[in-house]
Amino acid sequence: MDQLGAMRVFLRVIQTGSFSAAAREQNSSQATVSKKIAALEERLGVKLITRTSRELSLTQAGQEYYDHCVSILQEIDEVEANVRSQVSLPKGTLRIAAPAPLARILLAPLIAEFLHEYPDIEVDMVIGERPIDLVAEGIDIAIRAKKLEDSSLIARPLFDNPLQLVASPKYLDKHGIPATPNDLKNHHCIVYTYNRSLNNWHFKENDKEVSVSVQGAFRSNSGETNLEMALAGLGITQLPIWMTEQHLETGALVQVLEGFPSDTVPINVIYPHSRHIPLKVRCFVDYVQSRLRAKYP
After folding, report:
1. Are 21 and 39 in the same domain?
2. From 84, 102, 176, 294, which residue has the greatest number of CB atoms within 10 Å?
3. What's CA 144's distance to the chain center, in Å?
4. Residue 56 within any structural domain of the chain
5. Any idea which of 133-147, 169-183, 194-208 has the lowest mean pLDDT?
6. Average pLDDT, whole number, for the chain?
7. 210 near 223, Cβ under 8 Å?
8. What is the C-alpha separation between 277 and 281, in angstroms, rounded?
9. Which residues, 6+ apart, have CB-to-CB distance to 93 below 8 Å?
10. Final residue of a domain: which of 28, 55, 82?
11. Is the pTM for the entire model greater than 0.90?
12. Domain holding 217: CATH number?
C-alpha cells in the first residue's frame, strides 16, 4: 500500500467532506477512494471515519490520526518545496482563502497575472467570511482585512488599504458637500456594521485625531452593498480605495473630505508558522505584495 498516498486521500476526504469530492479531485472513482481508506484502517487496526447517509465524522482515533497526517504531510511538502526551489520554478496547488469582495475585485486580476507567470501553479480559492482553521482545512494562505488574532499564525502586510469617503454626484447636488468631518452629522451616512466603532468615523484634522458620530437610513455588513447604495444616491459611505477607484474614474462617485485622512484597514496575508515556507507561497506573496504596493504606494 502507498501509505503516503493513502494519507493524502484521507486528508482530502475530510477536508472536502465526501469521498466523491476527493475522488473527483484525483480523477478517480469513489470506490477507489473508499478502498484506500479501508486499506489504511486495516493497516492501523482502527476505524478512522464514521459514515452516515448525509455526512462524515472522524472517530477519536481518526481525529488524532488526521492531526498527525496534516503535520507530517505538510513537513514533507515543505522539505520537497525547499529542495526544488534550489533548481526549479514553483509548482503545485495553492489554496487561498479570502472574503468575496477582496477575491473578486482586488485579487482575481492579480491571480490571473500570477498564473500566466507561473504556469505550473494551480489556485484553489475558498471564498467567504467564516473563520477558517488553515491547517485543518489545508489552506496555504488566507487574505484578510483585519489584525491577526491567532498567535499560531504569521501575518505579513500586503498594503495599508486606505479608506475613502465617497458619494454620488446626485446625492451631493441635493444635500451639499461636507467641508469638515463635523459636517457629516448633517448628512445621510451609510455605515459598515463590521466596523467595531460602527457609527464613529475617524479622521485627522490639523494633526489631531477626530471622531465623528454619523447616522443614516441604511447600514449593512457588506461593503459591496454599501457601495451600491452610495451609487444609488442614498448617502456618503466609507470604503477602501480598491472598491471605489473605478467609480471615481468614471464620475459615478466623488471623493469628499480629501483633506481629512480617515482610517486605514491593513490587508494581511496569513499562513501557519513553519520552518520551511513553500516556494509557491513565497512566490505568490511576493508577487501580490509588489503589485499592490506599486499600485497603492
Report:
1. yes
2. 102
3. 5
4. yes
5. 194-208
6. 85
7. no
8. 7
9. 121, 122, 123, 124
10. 82
11. no
12. 3.40.190.290
189-192 and 219-220 as β-strands: parallel, antiparallel, unpaired? Answer: parallel
> What percentage of the chain reaches a pLDDT higher than 90?
31
Range of the domain at 149: 89-160+266-295
Q: Rounded to the nearest 10 degrees, what angle do helices 3-16 and 60-84 cross at?
A: 110
Q: How far is 96 from 110, CA to CA, in rounded Å?
A: 13
**Contact by Cβ (8 Å): 141, 281:** yes
Specify burial of residue 203 (Cβ count, 10 A radius: 0-12, 13-18, 19+).
buried
- Which residues have CB under 8 Å from 115's CB, separation 6+? 121, 122, 123
pLDDT tens-place string over residues 68-123? 888 888 888 777 766 766 556 778 889 999 988 889 988 999 999 999 999 889 99
Identity (one letter) of the amino acid at 81? Answer: A
Nearest to 160 by CA among 269, 296, 274: 296
pLDDT in tens, 39-50: 989 999 999 998
Q: Which residue has the cell 500586503?
A: 158
